[in-house]
Amino acid sequence: MKDETFSAYLTELGSKDGVSGGGSAAAYIGAMSASLVRMVADIQKDKKTYAEKKDELNSLLNEAERIREAFEELAKADAVAFEPVLDAYKLSKGTQEEKKARQEAVEAALKGAVEPPRLMLEEGQNLIQVLKELTAFRMKGTIVNDLMVATLFMGSVLETAVLNVTINTKLMKDKELKEQLEKEAERRLAHGKLELTKLSESIRYFLEHNEWPELLTEEE
C-alpha cells in the first residue's frame, strides 16, 4: 500500500460512528474486481501472443478502469445516501401540510438513496461483459486465477446491491416506482448470476485441467 487511505477506510467502516456500511464496502469490492480485470488486460496486451489483439485488450483495460472509478464514486455516494432519508424523517408532522411535505421529502430522499446500489448493478453488468471478453482470449498461466477472484467478487457485489435497493424501496409509498425498481434489480441480479456461473465454470475448468473447455461463455 502506498498510503494509509484504505486502512483509514477500514477503521471508519468498523467504527460505530462511521457513515460507511455494507453498500460502500460492496462498491469498493467492485472496484477491486475491476482493478484485477484491468491488471489482467494490461499484462496480456504486451504479450506477443496477443499482438494483433492489442487494441481490443487496451479497450477492455480502459473500460475496466472506467468501471473501477465508477465503483469508487458509488462507494462514496452510498456512504452518505441514507442521510437525507434520516433528515426527512425528522421533519415536523404536526399539521396536514407538514405531514404531506414530510412524506414528499422522504420519498425524494429514498429515490436518491436507491441510486447508488441501482448503479452498482449496472456497472456490475458492465464488468461481467469485460470478464466474458477477456475469458474468450483463452489465456494461460496463474493470472487466470485473478479472473476467478474478480468473478467471485462480483457475485457478492450484485447480491449486496439488490439488498440495498430493497432496503430503501420497502419504505416507499409509491407502489409503482417500488415495484419497478425491485423488478429491475431482481432482473439484473438473475442475469448477472447466470453469466457469473458460466464464467466461473469455465475458469474453474481451466484452473483444474490447465486447458479451457470447448465451449466458453459467449453471447447468445
TrEMBL record:
Q: Which Gene3D superfamilies match?
A: Formiminotetrahydrofolate cyclodeaminase monomer, up-and-down helical bundle
Q: Keywords for this entry? A: Coiled coil
Q: Where is the Cyclodeaminase/cyclohydrolase domain?
A: 6-186
InterPro entries attached to this UniProt entry: Cyclodeamin/CycHdrlase, Formintransfe-cycloase-like_sf
Coiled coil (UniProt feature): 40-77
GO MF annotation list: catalytic activity
**One Pfam family for this entry, by name?**
FTCD_C
UniProt protein name: Formiminotetrahydrofolate cyclodeaminase
Q: Which organism is it from?
A: Alkalibacterium putridalgicola
